[in-house]
Amino acid sequence: xxxxxxxxxxxxxxxxxxxxxxxxxxxxxxxxxxxxxxxxxxxxxxxxxxxxxxxxxxxxxxxxxxxxxxxxxxxxxxxxxxxxxxxxxxxxxxxxxxxxxxxxxxxxxxxxxxxxxxxxxxxxxxxxxxxxxxxxxxxxxxxxxxxxxxxxxxxxxxxxxxxxxxxxx
Length: 169
What we know:
By secondary structure, the protein is of the alpha+beta class. It has four helices and eight strands; from the N terminus they run E-E-E-E-H-E-E-E-E-H-H-H. The protein has helices at about 60-70, 130-135, 140-145, 155-169; strands spanning about 20-30, 35-40, 45-50, 50, 75-80, 85-90, 95-110, 125-130.
């Protein structure tokens, strides 16, 4: 994971935070500009990306892909390594909150499902990267998205994009 994608507060010991894995759903529009799928959170309706708690037996990338399917109804080709990470405060039951460290894995979207687990609970929208960064409900996510552009993604992510294009055919 590139250090420039980590907010300064992440340099602290990771164990002080609860870990989550997220998907960064990507596609190219007809003009060749990168887009990110954003979803709304269920309770506060903030614009976020699909993410969730670790799942026993699944890698971070596999967990991110499962969350994308359940929360956004999308499937695709997921990278093995995160493109970055961000932090946010998760509201828990009883009015408590937990500081979460989210590792984001690139997911080049191949298909969208007509129905999925949380389709009635969330909104989804494809946005160009700059607009997604502005709309992000967490400042740290917005800062991470501002670093994501064609030349800001790792080379392996471009290979995933080509693999996803082939899968769509």
